[in-house]
Design goal:
Elements: H1 4-7, H2 26-30, H3 33-46, H4 57-77, E1 85-91, E2 98-103, H5 106-123, H6 140-152, E3 157-162, H7 166-169, H8 172-179, H9 186-196, E4 200-202, E5 205-207, H10 220-237, E6 241-245, E7 248-253, H11 256-273, E8 284-287, E9 292-293, E10 296-301, E11 304-309, H12 311-324, H13 333-351, H14 357-379, H15 382-391, H16 396-403, H17 409-413, H18 416-421, H19 424-429, H20 435-445
Parallel strand pairs: 1-4
Antiparallel strand pairs: 1-2, 3-7, 3-8, 4-5, 6-7, 9-10, 10-11
Helix pairs in contact: 3-5, 12-13, 13-20, 14-20, 15-16
Length: about 450
């Protein structure tokens, strides 16, 4: 059975639905209008930077309407050649090095997303329940809760296995052999391989790819889970409690000696069977109270094992707030507040899982002090400072003394007079989302 568009030799619009009951091969499912339509909407929603051709996600739909027939013909004929990815280098959090990202063109992102949507229902149901990264229905919070349960059950020594530049070292032949275990369509396998070998454009020069799956491509998450599924199965076969989120692996055992044995055996599996590399300098054996996972840590209380935020994540929080509350950043307080609220909402949506009540109270006071020094600088002159202090309820004598003060901005921000003039409710009325209030709200609704 075929659609009228197929009988006429033209590809159907991407928004059409797949015909119910149609039995299709992996290739036909990949190129079905319904699958391509979902992929297009996903790429548009994710936005992202252009690839080497400069085309944006906003331009993609119009480009496809005019030229998809030619792309489809090249795909069916096996002559389609993916464009090289554009190299982007971003610093890792905490200044621990650089992360290499590859930005495909938006057309290649569409095709890769369509492939990923076909591979996911084939492979994902068979992945380990201890694998949480980039999987439908799985999340980082689930991984952290599972880790906490393992620690509560007495597995208080944590093996932190650091896969050295995992996304840059994946062996093409080993990866494709694992994909071919369940995907038999040679056209689809050939296209996946073509994306792995598409190359990278650096400073205008295309460099061939001989290993790795570029971070930033829609195919990379599912391929990384396929690659590491053998490691998951081996850990499961040996009866280990573990959690993996992409290339972030933690194994939980009952003693330091057992933890060291596990680190040695996992290193052997990774390096000999998967031909990857374990970074021995960054891999470690730690007690649970010192271990971290996905920005979280753990501590022990009378009520059991509790979740905390990794101090490095708190430092990054404060660094970002410092950027948004710079005195030299000349924007209105309303604009500044909008940016702060957006950041606080996003940060807290992730970290509200941790027990933060007392820590956030101090951070809120620090944040308001930074806002008070901005307001003090905005008033500039003696006359404006005195007038504003008087309008905010400060007696005239105190207003004159403080307006004439030569103390620095930070000391004035922490002074009783400015705290009285600009109390907590002042910032609440301006719409500031306090860290503690946001945490409480999210904990209530979680």
């Amino acid at each position: 059975m075929s659609t009228s568009a197929e009988r006429s030799g033209r590809s159907a619009p991407l928004s059409e639905a797949v015909i119910p009951g149609l039995e299709a091969s992996s290739w036909e499912e990949f190129l079905s209008p319904g699958n391509l339509g979902r992929a297009l909407r996903r790429v548009e929603a994710n936005r992202g930077a252009p690839g080497v051709d400069g085309m944006t996600t906003q331009e993609l739909r119009g480009w496809i309407r005019e030229r998809w027939a030619g792309v489809r013909e090249a795909l069916d004929a096996g002559t389609y050649r993916p464009s090289p990815v554009r190299r982007v280098v971003i610093p890792k959090p905490g200044g621990s090095g650089e992360r290499l990202l590859g930005v495909p063109t938006v057309l290649d992102r569409l095709i890769q997303q369509a492939i990923a949507q076909v591979l996911t229902p084939i492979f994902d149901p068979c992945f380990s329940g201890a694998s949480f990264g980039f999987r439908p229905g799985k999340s980082a919070h689930q991984a952290v809760r599972v880790a906490r349960r393992a620690i509560e059950d007495g597995h208080r020594w944590v093996v932190d296995v650091d896969l050295d530049r995992f996304f840059d070292r994946v062996n093409f032949d080993i990866l494709m052999a694992r994909v071919a275990r369940k995907v038999t369509d040679r056209r689809l396998l050939k296209l996946i391989r073509a994306y792995l070998e598409a190359g990278v454009m650096i400073d205008g020069i295309v460099r061939a790819s001989v290993e790795g799956t570029p971070q930033g491509s829609p195919l990379s998450p599912i391929l990384s889970n396929i690659m590491l599924d053998d490691l998951d199965r081996e850990l499961w076969r040996r009866g280990h409690r573990f959690v993996r989120f992409a290339d972030d692996l933690r194994v939980f055992v009952r003693s330091r000696r057992a933890a060291q044995r596990v680190l040695d055996s996992v290193t052997t599996v990774v390096e000999q069977r998967l031909k990857l590399k374990v970074n021995r300098d960054k891999s470690s054996v730690r007690h649970a109270r010192e271990a971290t996972l996905l920005g979280f840590g753990f501590y022990f209380s009378r009520s059991g094992v509790r979740i905390r935020v990794d101090p490095k994540a708190v430092k990054r929080l404060k660094d970002r707030i410092r950027e948004l509350t710079r005195r030299r950043w000349s924007v209105s307080m309303i604009c500044r507040m909008d940016r702060l609220n957006a950041f606080i909402s996003g940060w807290m949506a992730y970290f509200h899982l941790a027990d933060l009540a007392s820590r956030l109270r101090d951070l809120d006071e620090w944040l308001r002090s930074r806002l008070r020094q901005i307001r003090w600088k905005e008033w500039k002159r003696y006359s404006a400072k005195r007038r504003n202090l008087r309008q905010l309820g400060i007696p005239d004598r105190a207003a004159r003394e403080w307006a004439a003060s030569s103390k620095g901005y930070w000391r004035i921000a922490g002074s009783p007079v400015l705290k009285r003039a600009l109390p907590n409710i002042h910032w609440d009325d301006l719409g500031l989302l306090g860290l503690q209030n946001t945490w409480r709200r999210l904990r209530t609704t979680a």
